[in-house]
Specification:
Elements: H1 3-14, H2 19-26, H3 30-40, H4 47-50, H5 64-76, H6 82-90, H7 99-108, H8 124-137, H9 142-145, E1 148-158, E2 188-197, E3 200-207, H10 213-232, E4 237-239, H11 249-257, E5 261-262, H12 274-289, H13 294-307, H14 310-318, H15 320-329
Helix pairs in contact: 1-2, 1-3, 2-3, 5-6, 8-15, 12-13
Length: 337
């Protein structure tokens, strides 16, 4: 309660009003009125008398001057870590504040220590092209986007479990099977090409060699028309990013000869493409199964890709109108997608 309401509550109480009546008139919970009157019912109606009483407890570990310095420093350098911040505001003295204190002070200002999100590096030209694309497609419906066959390449890895994994165990279970983390000396990486649409996932093609115009053409010859017709219909639009192997004269000639219409795609725009989200989920699902060998990696990757059904892909494609709106709101900048 602020001082004005405290004074009003006390005046009403002394005028004979009940706690229920006071609560209704001031729009304050009755429990708050009751708690206030139990402490202040005999006090004079003055700001000094009705102010909060001094509270017992541990004094703040930082001074007002240190708080101001901390606030300015965080706003100036958001990447500065808590131990460096503690040393900075302590001025090199022996009385160092704790990591927890730094986090509490920052929380008071609505600032929280979080993992920095990664976004594509965007030039001014990229931003403008992304904005132009969003403007051109802002009115597209989900049916319009369902005509698009999205495609991309991505790498999936096994044996990359170098990070610490925290578990609950007893003291004597440090080396018990099932309580240890298996490691693989050499990580295996496989690269895949695939496609998807609102109707479901497309083919998953293993890329055994470097992606060149020749190898990419073989992939398209093998899968593009079949996937596009099956998932989008015969008049599908083909989406691919701006990788050099995608934009060669040979690839463009193939698309023209087959009568395949390509959806022009802005540079550095993975957040526009739903297949990027699919590959991200795929990598997590494969990692959870910890394939121990190359053959297992291929088998598990194919299984998990095929399990990402049409309900999931339709939800991803259905987000495209929101992605276009988000890009416009960001002025062509990066979005949360």
């Amino acid at each position: 309660m602020d001082l004005a309401n405290r004074g009003a509550a006390l005046a009403l109480h002394r005028g004979g009003s009940t706690q229920v009546s006071i609560a209704e008139q001031l729009q304050i919970p009755r429990s708050t009125i009751q708690s206030f009157l139990s402490v202040h019912h005999k006090d004079p109606i003055s700001d000094e008398a009705l102010a909060d009483r001094p509270r017992a407890g541990r004094p703040r570990a930082t001074t007002e001057k240190q708080d101001r310095l901390l606030h300015r420093t965080i706003l100036k350098d958001a990447s500065m870590q808590t131990d460096d911040l503690a040393q900075h505001i302590s001025g090199g003295g022996s009385m160092m504040v704790s990591d927890r204190t730094i986090r509490r002070r920052a929380a008071e200002w609505g600032l929280y220590h979080r993992v920095q999100r990664k976004t594509p590096a965007l030039t001014r030209s990229h931003v403008q092209k992304r904005l132009d694309f969003a403007h051109a497609h802002i009115d597209w419906t989900i049916d319009d986007w369902s005509r698009v066959l999205f495609s991309d390449e991505s790498s999936v890895q096994c044996g990359s479990n170098h990070g610490q994994q925290w578990i609950w165990r007893r003291i004597d279970e440090a080396w018990v099977d099932g309580k240890t983390q298996p490691t693989i000396k050499v990580a295996t990486t496989m690269k895949f090409w695939s496609s998807m649409s609102a109707a479901g996932p497309g083919s998953l093609h293993i890329i055994e060699e470097s992606l060149t115009s020749d190898s990419y053409l073989k992939i398209l010859q093998q899968h593009l028309i079949a996937d596009g017709t099956r998932l989008c219909g015969s008049d599908f639009l083909f989406q691919q990013d701006n990788h050099p192997s995608h934009k060669t004269e040979r690839i463009q000639r193939f698309l023209e000869e087959k009568g395949i219409q390509e959806l022009p795609w802005p540079p550095n725009s993975p957040d526009f493409s739903p297949i990027e989200n699919m590959f991200s989920v795929l990598k997590r699902l494969v990692a959870e199964r910890s394939p121990p060998s190359k053959d297992d990696l291929i088998r598990i990757t194919i299984e998990e890709w095929e399990n990402l059904g049409s309900e999931y892909t339709h939800a991803l494609v259905s987000s495209l109108p929101d992605r276009m709106q988000a890009a416009m709101t960001a002025g062509g900048g990066a979005t949360k997608y």
